Amino acid sequence: MVKSSYNESLIELLDTLTIQLDRYAAIFIFLFGVVGNVLNIFVLSQRTFHSNSCAWIFLTASVVNLVSILSGLITIMIGSWTTNPTNTIGWICKLRAHLVFSTRTMAPWLIVLATIDRWLLSSIDAIRRRKSTLKNAQRWAAVIITLSILLYAQMFYCYEANLTDAPLSCYDKTVICRYLTDLSFVSITVMIPVVLMILFGLLTIINARESQRRVQSLTRGNHVSGTNRSSRPTAGSSQRKPTRRTEQSLLRMLLVQVLVFCILTIPLSLDRFYSTLYKDNGSATILE
């Protein structure tokens, strides 16, 4: 009797904490995310970045992240004060689920695309460098967006409102749908992009070090052969310096995004994977 009363009090406390987190933490995340992505869109829309493939990918990712935040957090904030419309209205539940999962998939794959673009551009192979173009970036971004939309098209069938036997009122209506959604999220949205980000990030760093060694060796050779020549820099070298600084800044921005994405999403993917394979009582489930 005492244990039952303690459990009820604990559940009530956790419910209260959840409501307070949804009410105030969601507002902070919403404002921080919206302001940050709007600033990214404003900066990356400047004429300086119009022909830069990596900057264009970052711009597209910022738009996608903004859509993800707006579609994901607005209903949560509404639900912390009144009835969440996704819990009772079927089409809103389905549309929100599709927008949230598809945009969450687009964003990491766009970062993967940016990582590959930096790897190509930093390569000492001229053929690879020529593949880093704005046209190729736009083409592959369109492929990523299209496949992400198609990947979670089942949300319009799987998700349903007014559920009573699910963790949330707006949730997958069958066990098969839950397995499909969770495994797709863990593998395609999180784990595969993380592996590719780390792989091409390391390859980009290796390319950058090789390029630095080549530049240093060429500089030493030019210094020895040109001791009697004028040391005044040419117009071409002075024009390349701002471009080089821009590329280095974009590379640092990319590596920071990869690191933050890995830190924040790997624990979530492990939790979803565990919850998919095991029931609440800890016994393993069989995927049939």
UniProtKB/TrEMBL annotation:
GO terms for molecular function: G protein-coupled receptor activity. One of its GO terms (cellular component) is membrane. Coiled coil: none annotated. InterPro entries: GPCR-Ligand_Int (IPR052954), GPCR_Rhodpsn (IPR000276), GPCR_Rhodpsn_7TM (IPR017452). Residues 217-240 have a biased composition (Polar residues). Residues 217-244 are annotated as: Disordered. It is found in: Membrane. Keywords: Membrane, Transmembrane, Transmembrane helix. It comes from the Eukaryota. Residues 36-288 form the G-protein coupled receptors family 1 profile domain. The chain crosses the membrane at residues 24-44, 56-81, 101-120, 140-157, 183-206, 250-270. This is G-protein coupled receptors family 1 profile domain-containing protein.
